[in-house]
Amino acid sequence: MNHSHDRSRAPVTATTKITSNQHFQIILLPLTTPMVRSFATACAFVGALAVAAAQPSFVYKFDAADAAGVDGSIQIQYAGENSSIATITAALDFSRVNQSDIVAFDNNCTMDTVTSWKWHIHTKWNSTRSSDSFKQCAKAATASHFDPLRACGPVSEYNAEPECEAKIKDYACNPDNYAADPLKCEKGDLSGKFGAFKLAEDATVSNQWTDEHFPLPSENTESWSIVLHAVCGQESRIACAHRTEVEGEVDQTPVSSVQSTVPPAGCGV
Which InterPro entries does the UniProt entry name for this protein (predicted)? Predict the structure, then answer.
């Protein structure tokens, strides 16, 4: 009878066990052992979560019932914890926006349908809801554009300062100028940087941009909101949404809830 070991068996991994006399005993377990597979899978999952945690992510969710008919979300996902590189993903549906409501709020808006929308980061949130509309998006409720470097557009958070006020007339933020010189734009002037939302035939927006000079995660505060302005009449603030921190990417049609996960012990995360 051949008592030689079968070398075709599954590879093994080593674990260490301390016996009662304090000697080290090496126990070899096949990599196919269910316990080893489960532990490796758990650690791989935790490793993926650690990467996600190192990439801060924020979402602005618009609920049609509260946000003047606008539904969907805008997500900001950073490349790293201290990175200014961020991916901005917009997935919005404007099909339930009632034009008569916009006209009632801004009687200078006389077009049949608003097909273009400006969007900005504002520095305040006053509503008890996660998204809102009309007066709840006004300056008293959402304040002005985030502008820490004082590019000084007309709605800059510092537009009342004499130095900033003098620069307003020369403010020219557009995608070409921003690509040439990021200081031309307020950090919160998203439509200036990337262009206004242009609705598709089905009244939706689905687009993605990468900004290498986005506000740092450390600048990102709980008071932030994104406000949507109808490009019509006085370009009134029609809908707005509050910032929510999430983990990793989210399903933006609609945005799904994200559950926190506690890592299993022993994975070194």
Answer: SOD-like_Cu/Zn_dom_sf
Which residue is associated with the tokens 């949130």? 125
Cis amide prior to 254 (ω within 30 degrees): yes
| CATH code for the domain in which residue 167 is found | 2.60.40.200
Number of independent structural domains in the chain? 2
| Measured CA angle at 154 (ends 208, 113), to 5 deg | 55
User: From first to last of its 269 residues, what are the pLDDT tens digits of the chain?
Assistant: 555 555 445 554 444 444 444 444 544 545 555 554 554 444 444 444 444 458 999 999 999 999 999 999 999 999 999 999 999 999 999 999 999 999 999 999 999 999 999 999 999 999 999 999 999 999 999 999 999 999 999 999 999 999 999 999 999 999 999 999 999 999 999 999 999 999 999 999 999 999 999 999 999 999 999 999 999 999 999 999 999 999 866 666 543 333 333 333 333 32
Contact 230, 109 (CB under 8 A): yes
What is the rounded CA–CA span in Å between residue 75 and residue 90?
Answer: 7
Q: What is the DSSP letter of 269?
A: -
Supply the range of the domain harboring residue 29: 12-52
Half-sphere exposure in the Cβ direction for 160 (13 Å, CA): 3
Identify any residues that bridge with 242 across adjacent strands, giving them in sequence order.
225
Q: Establish how many alpha carbons lie within 13 A of residue 121's alpha carbon, considering only the half-sphere containing its beta carbon.
A: 26
